[in-house]
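TA notes. Do not distribute before section.
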Amino acid sequence: MDVTVNGKVEEVDDSYMDQIYQVHPEMVEIDSADSRSSRSTLRPFAITPIDGSVYDLRQKPVFQKHFNF
């Protein structure tokens, strides 16, 4: 299955990292386990979706659905 979302992406303030880590505490474990990564190198982004599509090639006929946000 393939899902595509088209939209506007922009970098947001680093203060969002606290919220991201709070919602996804597993990132703390991943970040501390990988010496190559560091919280200071991560950059948060916001996505404003415009439209998208879903394709499922496993079905016959192929399932296709386009949607707008």
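Switch to the second chain here.
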Amino acid sequence: MSANWKSVALTVLLAALASGGGAWLGAGWMMKRHETPGLHDIVHRKLDLKPEQDARLDAIEARFAAQRQQLEADVRAANRELADAIAASKGDSPEVRAAVDHFHDAMGALQKATIAHVFEMRAVLTPDQARAFDREIAGALTQEPR
């Protein structure tokens, strides 16, 4: 009888592992399939760029990458500050409100810099490319989560 229970337990364990692994892989596949295309992908894969446009856009993207890293670090720092303020507070305190404001300021700075970057890239495009770019950006911004 003990061998039967071991067999049943092993079967249940293997079934749980297989179903968990399948769910994890399936969720990852679905998330990847529905993720919003990045700005780099929109520009370099969906627009017919001339070599000089490609070079100019690469330089713009390289400059923004460094700026974005700093802005994202500011957002993470503001988020940590908010977490610390919440942990140290018994409720909605002046420290929590100040941390929320700091977080909003950091997120706003990142968003403003990203929009400026979009327009800097757009200035390199021909009118036809810019129209296609605008459609892709608008679609990415209005895409509903699935």
